[in-house]
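Journal club prep, shared notes

We agreed each person brings one worked example of a sequence with its structure written out as tokens. Mine is Amidohydrolase family protein. I'm keeping it raw so we can talk through how to read the token line rather than staring at a rendered picture. Sequence first:
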Amino acid sequence: MLIGAQCAPAGSVQEKRARMHSRTVFKNGVVFDGTSVSDADVAVAGDRVVAIGVDLDGDEVVDCTGMSIVPGLFDCHVHVMARDLNVARTEQQAFSLQYFEAGRNLSLLLDQGITSARDAAGADLGIKQAIERKLIEGPRLQIAIVMLSQTGGHSDLHLPSGGERSVPMMLEHPGRPRSIVDGVDGPGGVRRGVREVLRAGADVIKIATTGGVMSLGDNPRHSHFRDDELAAIVAEAAAAETYVFAHAQGTEGIKAALRHGVRSIEHGYYLDDEAVALMLKNETWLVPTLSATRAIIDAAASGVPIPAESLALAQEALEAHRASFALAVNAGVKIAMGTDTPPYWSPSASNLDELGLMTEASSMSAIEAWRAATSSAAKLLGHDDLGVIEPGGLADIVVVDGDLLDLRDLRGRIRQVWLAGVRVR
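Then the structure, token by token:
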């Protein structure tokens, strides 16, 4: 049976059961196994890769002539509950609408070959359970639920008028604990805050150690949380056998997070040599999200009502962001792909644009960018059997039209997406 690139995914229960007992071989393509490229066939049985080699046989054959075969892709920084950057519009929508928009976002991630993702605030346990129970389709999801920040920090929705922004994905509800914490102990302290987020089902803990471009009234260059607060946050996460990752844009807030042992720095707009040295010493990851600053500027140009303060900060940060990323790459900092954007800021937008942005901004090669979106990202998120194509690994496989060295229009070149041995696109 020949399965062409345009063949519809198997839909019936009987077909899926049959596939669990059959052997599918991807033939005639170029294989990127998460590390290197070779001409080979890939055999899958059930949910696992069982062989890589030449002239492999199978019950079903996927002809990948002129195509590349890559592991399922990762985006380590998504917000699946968000629609776009139009905060004025989201403030007027019903609270529950975000859950239906999440369903669409998750589906669009799969469209792009993203089979694993880390939601960096917004998605609650119900979203993750809905995917696991197949009530909705989506990639494997690691969730932070909220981003913990100090009063006046990046999660604080306070407005100069005295009111608060009603951004649905950030509002407190029974599955999404409060995100504003101050001091170490007490009812509003960071220790209880971390424990509440873990109780709500978070896989990982996200904090903001600086202000942010899109939050009014705080400055991305300012350092947030003090040393005792950061120490308590990291200790509580470690006690629960998980880790902390930090929204960190300004230099001092980046270094504060690094000194206390966060696992990854998100954004890293204003790195310096000392920060890079700390990242190397601590083996800290950088998730650069180069798409984020670009998206804010593009949204404003298209007529989205971006606050003037936020637009000015994004424009100021754009070149510094690129330079910081280049500094990190040249020094050998570990990089994992993340975008900080939902998958449809515009009809032509794609999370996969991040690969091209990384190579344009630094000495990173196209293959290194693919590693950042596969094997490296898997290591950051703690998945030993994902991000690679190797015998025994989970069969998350993406078929991409054309040469992997060409990073243009990747979204339009995704031909097939397989999740744990089942074709979903």
